[in-house]
Specification:
heterodimer; A: alpha/beta; Rossmann fold; seven-stranded mixed sheet; 14 helices; 14 strands; globular; B: alpha/beta; Pyruvate-ferredoxin Oxidoreductase, domain 3; about 35% helix; about 25% strand
Amino acid sequence: MEKELRLMKGNEALAEAAIRAGADGYFGYPITPQSEVMEYLMQEKPHERTGMVVLQAESEVAAINMVYGGAGCGKMVMTSSSSPGVSLKQEGITYIAGAELPCLIVNVVRGGPGLGTIQPAQSDYFQATKGGGHGDYNLIVLAPSSVQEMADFVELAFDLAFKYRNPAMILSDGAIGQMMEKVWLKPQKERNLKLPEWGTTGKTPGRERNIITSLDLNPAKQEQFNHKLQAKYREMEKNEVRYEEFQCDDAEYLFVAYGTSARVCQKAIQLARAEGIKVGLLRPITLFPFPKKIIHERAGQVKGILCVEMSAGQMVEDVRLAVNGLIPVEHWGRMGGIVPTPEEAVENLKSKIIGG
Amino acid sequence: MTEEIIIAGFGGQGVLSMGKIMAYSGIMQDMEVSWMPSYGPEMRGGTANVTVILSEERISSPIIRVFDTAIILNQQSMDKFEKSVKPGGTLIYDGNGITRHPERKDITVYRIDAAEEATKLESTKTFNMIVLGGFLKVRPIIKLENVLKGLKKSLPERYHHMIPMNESALMRGMEIINRLN
């Protein structure tokens, strides 16, 4: 099968990419604005195409525990949901992180808190990047800003998850999930039927039994394990930082934004530059590991940074840590499911950074 | 070249599918495209709208506040989007059910009585194709042959026998659109 050009919603592109990446299983429970993921998978019947299992669980909690089970066997498994559903999954996610298992969790974020709205938001940044569940752990977090990246990041997320034996998350939002753009789909990959040696695949002569657990009642051993996890996260910070820069070379000011907000900022840059304001965009692609080094470098070249987020200001805290007081860093955003407009972004750049 | 378009009307008028055909047609012409619908409760029984962007360059924001062209198919949408057309831009509307006609003088206004025409053709389903034909006449960004290719790509195969009917609706739309100012 060749690469294929299609017009798809972000949610559909992600689902098709999961089949083509050779995923073994998807377990989910419907919620707007990501229901197309499972709808698409059910229509496509991937079991007939590749043998991939798709199952609608009885709840989000059941779905994440099915992922825990599948991942424990060394299978390439995933789930997807939107904000309230991802909150329900947090217990499972911390267990998966504690058991050092690879898997993919997709959050197509909607406005919160609580049931909130069904419109796009980015107010789950803290939950995604700072743990979400209990205990010291991190997910690998990828933030797509186009339908193409919704597709491309599925395979990338699985690759990173298996490389580090760590859960990975795609943190998207309702706008990217719902919009259609053109997308190049990769050819079908064979499912990998050879399971990793750490998986619980049944009693195998000649090796110690594999145990998947997140429990160790010996605190000294548990601390050792925590050190091991932390070393792994530092390794990710060294090797896996991804970001994109947009008109940064001559910039006097900088937007830092991810996902849909980064798209809004690209338009804002066109508008601002037409008025003679030299502004660029730094778009974090990995939210964990966060691109702090490049942000620190850029802070030495520009006069101020505006973080544009569809939240009350969450990523701005990481940007401030990276900038470490060198220059002013402000946040501006919309909440509750409202997407900021490029015009508003320019106005706020002027009032909060340039005039500030 | 970038064309930023809003199509707005009632749910059921084929607003979203018209946008989808536009987007597919753009792809057939090697353009970058985005299709951003309003989704959720506002679509249930109320207004439906979709932002379509066709561009020769990478598309920045798929969500925008002002448009090069607004295609307006009911009064609520007129109230909401007449003011959102860029100065010098284009407004196309169906006169059916419109009680307050567009008033702006700094944009080009076209009227297309597509609902009436679709009734005459005894095929109300071709309504959105008549409107699309009108759009293609006054904003010839996409070639008709690419629209037909786009139509083929966006319709499931079981509906392909309806392509000739859609083609004549497109042609009819090109004929009946009227410039008002």
